[in-house]
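Sample A.
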Amino acid sequence: MAKPALGRGLGELLNGNGASETSTATETRTTAPRMSAGLSTLVHNAADTPPPAASAPAPRVVRASLLAADAVLTCGAFLFLLKQSSPDAISTVAALLALLFGGWLGWLGLTWGRSGNGR
């Protein structure tokens, strides 16, 4: 088994002889090291093969999901307040937060994927 580049001449350095002038530390390897499949994937040149592109959901699906979430939150907040005989401060704040969050989701649903040129 060959000595690694850092271990060559170590005995001579420890004995005080100094490194020999014909140090083999500058030698280059002629064979490529064997790598596992995972390591070769990490080391592989990214320019050769592009990574697989993640498919983004269609804007219609995102918009419909946001608008549906808005409707569910708004209806849920109204039903929650209607079922309360006398809503206290905590339930009122929770319903208002649900309405605000639902309104924000609805606004995102209406504006998602729209460009600034009016399309």
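Sample B.
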Amino acid sequence: MKTTLISAGQSLLDVCLQELGTLDALFDLADANGLSCTAVLRPGQVLQVPDSVLSRPEVVNYFAARSYRINVADAVLPAGIVVPPDEPDTMQDFLPSDFKKADFK
């Protein structure tokens, strides 16, 4: 089982799409981490990414090849949460215009 580091504004749905390639595996991801599907994630939190029969490796590979991090929320944090400094960010945020269905054939 691999792990992933959460960035500011990421939701469990974002992580599921990025790491498993489909939202169909949301319950697998939540269960592997003892979370509800609507759990609020914290920047710097590490999640376990389970193997799932529902995963779509071609979608995961698409995002990984382009260094995309799925983060559909504005990076607005609740009051009192401080984002710890970390290594320089080398990931690009995913833009819907970058995604083409033809890339998944």
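B remarks: Residues 44 and 86 are 9 Å apart (CA to CA). The chain has three helices and four strands.
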